[in-house]
Design a protein that fits this description.
The structure holds two protein chains of two kinds. By secondary structure, chain A is of the alpha+beta class. Chain A has 19 helices and 39 strands. Chain B has twelve helices and ten strands. Classes of the chains: A alpha+beta, B alpha+beta.
């Protein structure tokens, strides 16, 4: 909340510089967003006297002025204004000056004549009549002879105020006003705080002869106070009030509207003034809107109301959107004769809901949403009447209508000082505790160690000892807290098994040249379409965000591949020649759609690679290395993912469980990402892979006897996967098999059409003896037999 | 004969000295010491000598042979060494030529920083736990003392997936799940991804990361909180870093504080990074609100605790002086390679 420092000084003595005030308020829990010195945006503008005026030979409206700016030499300034004469004292913006409107003035020429500055109007200095008499005149502002020539305009205008923007935390709605902040300043600085004591005179009469008030829904409106003021004398409000209102970011209108706004800023209690004569049947009815009712608000907009919205109606129709904005029809205008003044409390969630539904947020509704004090409702009404009386804005009719169902009692907290301070661990003397609480407006007495603290409703954020501890400490000073090392039993911090396992994967992949990426958990709703998945694919069952930032971030991802493709495209677009990337994150799989319970959040890994040294098999190598961490045995089957190359993709099985797919990305898909080269991706269900428990490692003795190497070269049908050949060799070799290595695959010249030549080296070894020629020959025969059984033709 | 011997020996010695490569010396060896060599020839002529002279002469010849052999061996070694030296010299390489690349990747900077944090807190006995990213209103708000109409809900713009389901706005939700499943003493951190409806710009991201810390035990005080955070700050920012508490408000802690550390850039003197204040805000913390303890079935009269929430993204961008948070999610390899 922005507050004028001068306004605050009306309620509390401020005996320190503004910077120190702000520092100390910050340490008491009131963060300062900004300190704006008035006039900071008005630089190098001085009061200057017009010494000479000459016509401009190339213009019939421009005049050339010689200005005494207090410097040794006169300054020539060209102006278009006509309301000036020699001898006038006027504001002159000199070379390199800044005006509040943001303009930067430098030396220049106007129609060929040098002009070394600018003479300013009230408007150009952003002044109103409230700031300086004559400011609204169309033309140059003529200054009064209060200051000598050369005086900085900031001094002339009396711009000595600071506007401080306090960030009021959500637990302190009582400080969204001058009085709340001033009271805290008094406690922080130890100076006196004085709230105005409302006093005024009425002109007699009886309010009940003028109006009746009925609250139909006390749940949404726990208190409603009404007053009537006759014979309004509508005019401008006084300068001090206008300045305070402007400083807080509002606009002065007229004395009545300004009083309601000022009282809201001063007390935190929103007020509303109705044109009494526009109220049908002289009735105020606080009720829910009826279906089909509409209202035109002060800003001229029409709204359709629903039954959950609270309105202030007259005998016929809604006249005000309760707590949010008044109706156009009962607006206070310059010829309004009589007014009905409202000061009320509305339930904050209802105001919040209505405001959100209709898309309206006002100074008043913001305060209601944060919560206002039911007791303060009355004080604010009284204060408004005092100002009406003091400013002679109208005649106050006797009597008050106060609708409520009882006011809350003060909350009494009884607790020992030890119990308060044991949350903090700092010794604060009992008398200091009591003193701080009393100064904060929480009347407190002490008996032995036990304090009794009376908490008024305006501080209903204070519920118990923890709150009292905070109140004491923020005033006593958090710098009294001295860090202590952790106490208690010595324990070892443990990691979840999943983190330990994924850390291993990350170590492996980074060691293998891959970079870990981080991408958003939500993607564009259409992103899934890029994978060309069939309509019934389960990955299309995506959870939508109800209120996304835009379609681009609207859908919880069921896969990581689209994000990976985006990252690959980003890097390729930047002409980065190659890359290996991986991401471990969650995919969100709904149990049903639309969702009614938390979805499955499944840990998933994507890998994406591209570059001249990368292909299907480098990716396969990375996958196998990952699976090896878990001691898992991998197998591959042909898969049919639409987003992968139909002939270059595989389903991965680890220990016979399907854990994912990988392959070369389909050219149609890469094209939709603007990728022109081959890229390879894998998507692995880590939730399944991490579930594979590695068998306990037991040492195997190193071989003592020599191995025998045998080569097998053969012709097979071109479409026989080498995996089948390996299985044949492996079953033929049995337990003597140590290692198989594919060393050649060839198709082409000298090989019959439809065939391929495949060659393997096979190592055989026995753990307990050197293999005899016979043993070797037997195995050889078995392997050949197995190979022949799958149609292989051995080449000698 | 004696004269002839000395003449041959002298000639041989001179010849050896003049040799320039191994083949020449091999030729010399054959010429003098070979079966048909000149020294061998002298031995063969010994028959013409008297029996008295023969052994003397024999000894002289052998001596000459041995001497020459030793000379030849020495020369051979010398030439070998020279040849090797020349070869090595010829093999000199340009050591500034590029290395044969060992491809190695990097962890994402967020996780590099997270790993450091986990190490710090794990060593202080904190377990590292996890929680769901899609939360219920109950865990994300209600249990954290933020009922439906509470204005604190406006502090965080929430993404909703259904009336009652949302993307967690804070890892604090994991506090509740922890307190429901564990009994005090509790000492955990929960790192994780959180979401708020902030438009994307240089300092805001709708997806970011927090590390929630929670300690609940008998007699836990704010001094303990400060002690733990000082330990953390010293590890992350350096051992002379100071920690300052500033009063603040969070619905789930009371008292609540913002925690500042002395600016690591200027050491607290005030600079551009800390906007002249000498302090940098790093996290929010406080004593667990009694209502929160109660809602988890922990008696606030018996137990107390503290909680803190550290913004991992902010910590990462300040540590590496990254000017734009969007870089963290763009994943340019040249960016990722720097950490």
């Amino acid at each position: 909340m922005k507050i004028s420092l001068n306004a605050l000084k009306y309620y509390v003595d401020i005996n320190v510089p503004v910077e120190e005030l702000c520092d100390r308020m910050v340490m008491a829990g009131f963060e300062v967003e900004s300190i704006e010195k008035q006039g900071d945006n008005l630089v190098n503008v001085v009061a200057a006297r017009i010494m000479e005026i000459a016509p401009h030979e190339n213009s019939d409206h421009l005049q050339i002025c010689q200005m005494d700016t207090g410097a040794d030499e006169l300054v020539q300034i060209v102006t278009g204004a006509q309301n000036i004469k020699v001898g006038d004292l006027v504001p002159a913006a000199l070379n390199d000056s800044y005006l509040p409107c943001g303009a930067h003035i430098v030396n220049g020429k106007l129609r060929g004549v040098p002009s070394n500055g600018m003479l300013c109007s009230g408007e150009e200095l952003c002044l109103t009549e409230a700031d300086y008499e004559g400011a609204s005149v169309n033309g140059i502002l003529i200054l009064k002879e209060t200051h000598p020539v050369g005086t900085d305009m900031r001094e002339v205008l009396g711009l000595d105020d600071y506007i401080i923007d306090f960030k009021i935390t959500a637990n302190r709605p009582d400080c969204n006003c001058f009085l709340g902040v001033a009271k805290e300043i008094g406690v922080v600085l130890g100076t006196e705080f004085k709230a105005p004591k409302p006093e005024y005179k009425t002109v007699g009469g009886n309010i009940n002869d003028y109006i009746s008030v009925e609250v139909k829904n006390y749940d949404l409106c726990p208190r409603y106070i009404g007053r009537v003021v006759k014979n309004l004398r509508i005019k401008e409000s006084p300068v001090w009030m206008q300045k305070a209102i402007i400083a807080s970011g509002m606009r002065p209108i007229n004395n009545i509207v300004d009083i309601t706004n000022f009282v809201m800023l001063e007390t935190g209690q929103p007020m509303h003034a109705f044109n009494y004569n526009d109220l049908a049947d002289k009735k105020i009815i606080v009720r829910n809107a009826r279906a089909g009712e509409t209202i035109t608000t002060l800003d001229g907009k029409d709204y359709n109301l629903t039954e959950d919205m609270l309105v202030i109606a007259d005998g016929e129709k809604p006249s005000c959107l309760a707590g949010i904005m008044g109706g156009k029809e009962s607006e206070i205008e310059n010829d309004t004769k009589d007014l009905f003044l409202e000061s009320a409390k509305f339930r904050r969630d209802n105001i919040r809901h209505t405001g959100r539904t209709l898309g309206i947020r006002t100074e008043a509704s913001g305060r209601y949403e944060r919560g206002i004090d039911i007791v303060n409702v009355e004080y604010a009404a009284e204060r408004a009447l005092q100002l009406i009386y003091e400013l002679d804005a109208g005649d106050i009719i006797d009597g008050v209508i106060d609708c409520n169902q009882g006011l809350p009692e003060d909350r009494i907290i009884t607790v020992t000082t030890d119990r308060i301070m044991e949350l903090i661990g700092v010794d604060v003397p009992d008398e200091t505790i009591v003193d701080i609480l009393n100064r904060l407006g929480l009347p407190t007495t002490i008996n032995g160690k036990e304090i009794t603290c009376r908490v008024p409703s305006i501080r209903d954020d204070i519920e118990g000892r923890a709150d009292l501890a905070e109140e004491v400490m923020r005033i006593y000073g958090y710098d009294h807290i001295v860090g202590t090392p952790m106490k208690g039993t010595v324990v070892r911090g443990k990691l979840l098994p999943e983190r330990i396992k994924t850390d291993k994967i990350k170590k492996l992949l980074t060691g293998a040249g891959a970079y870990e990426i981080a991408t958003y958990s939500f993607i564009a709703s259409k992103a899934i379409d890029t994978l060309l998945l069939p309509e019934d694919d389960v990955r299309r069952q995506q959870i939508k965000i109800i209120n996304p930032l835009g379609d681009e971030y609207s859908t919880m991802r069921t896969q990581l591949t689209t994000s990976m493709l985006t990252v690959l495209a980003t890097n390729i677009n930047k002409k980065i020649s190659d890359g290996r990337f991986f991401e471990i994150s969650k995919r969100f799989v709904p149990k049903s759609l639309p969702i009614t319970e938390q979805p499955h959040e499944l840990t998933t890994m994507s890998i994406g690679i591209y570059g001249k040294d990368e292909d299907f098999f480098t990716l396969k190598g990375l996958i196998e290395a990952v699976c090896k961490i878990f001691g898992a045995h991998t197998m591959y089957e042909r898969s049919t993912e639409p987003y992968l190359h139909p002939g270059r993709q595989a389903l991965i099985k680890a220990n016979n469980k399907e854990i994912g797919v990988f392959g070369e990305v389909h050219p149609t898909v890469t094209a939709s990402y603007g990728i022109e080269e081959k890229v390879y991706v894998a998507e692995i269900k880590l939730d399944i892979l991490l579930g594979i428990e590695k068998r306990k490692t037991v040492y195997k003795p190193l071989p003592k006897f020599p191995a025998v190497e045998r080569d097998f070269a053969m012709l097979v049908d071109a479409d026989v996967p080498v995996g089948n050949i390996e299985r044949a060799i492996s079953s033929g070799a049995g337990r003597l098999l140590e290692r198989i290595e594919l060393f050649d695959v060839y198709q082409g010249a000298q090989i019959p059409e439809g065939k391929k030549s495949v060659a393997y080296s096979v190592w055989l070894r026995s753990a307990d003896s050197t293999l005899s020629d016979k043993e070797i020959e037997d195995v050889n025969t078995k392997i050949i037999k197995k190979l022949e059984s799958i149609g292989a033709e051995l080449r000698k | 004969m004696k004269e002839k011997l000395s003449a041959i020996s002298l000639e041989a010695k001179n010849a050896v000295a003049l040799c320039e490569d191994e083949s020449q010396i091999e030729n010399l060896r054959v010429k003098y010491l070979g079966k048909k060599g000149e020294l061998t020839a002298i031995l063969k002529q010994m028959g013409s000598l008297s029996p008295e002279e023969r052994p003397k002469m024999g000894a002289l010849v052998n001596e000459a042979k041995q001497e020459l052999e030793a000379l030849i061996t020495e020369k051979k070694d010398e030439l070998k060494a020279k040849a090797q030296e020349a070869k090595l010299k010829a093999e000199t390489i340009d050591i500034t030529m590029p290395a044969k690349e060992v491809k190695s990747g990097k962890l994402h900077p967020l996780n590099t920083v997270l790993d450091d944090m986990i190490n710090i807190f794990q060593s202080m006995g904190f377990d590292v736990v996890d929680g769901p990213e899609v939360e219920t209103d109950h865990y994300n708000f209600e249990c954290l003392n933020v009922p439906a109409d509470h204005p604190a809900r406006d502090m965080q713009d929430t993404f909703y997936l259904a009336e009652n389901l949302l993307l967690r706005t804070q890892t604090s939700a994991a506090q509740i799940r922890t307190m429901e499943t564990r009994k005090p003493p509790i000492r955990v951190i929960c790192p994780g991804r959180v979401f708020r409806a902030d438009e994307v710009d240089a300092t805001h991201s709708p997806v970011f990361h927090q590390i929630e810390g929670l300690v609940v035990d008998k007699g836990i005080t704010m001094c303990d909180l400060k002690g733990v955070l000082e330990e953390f700050a010293h590890e992350i920012y350096g051992s002379d870093t100071k920690v300052k508490f500033r009063p603040s408000f969070f619905p789930f802690t009371e008292p609540s504080v913002e925690v500042d550390v002395t600016c690591s850039e200027c050491g607290g003197k005030g600079c551009r990074v800390c906007k002249g204040s000498g302090w940098i805000e790093i996290l929010g913390a406080g004593m667990v609100h009694p209502n929160v303890l109660k809602s988890c079935g922990i008696d606030p009269e018996e137990y107390s605790g503290f909680a803190f929430g550290i913004g991992l993204d902010r910590l990462t961008t300040t540590r590496y002086k990254i000017s734009d948070i969007r870089l963290l999610f763009e994943n340019d390899k040249r960016f990722l390679d720097q950490f």
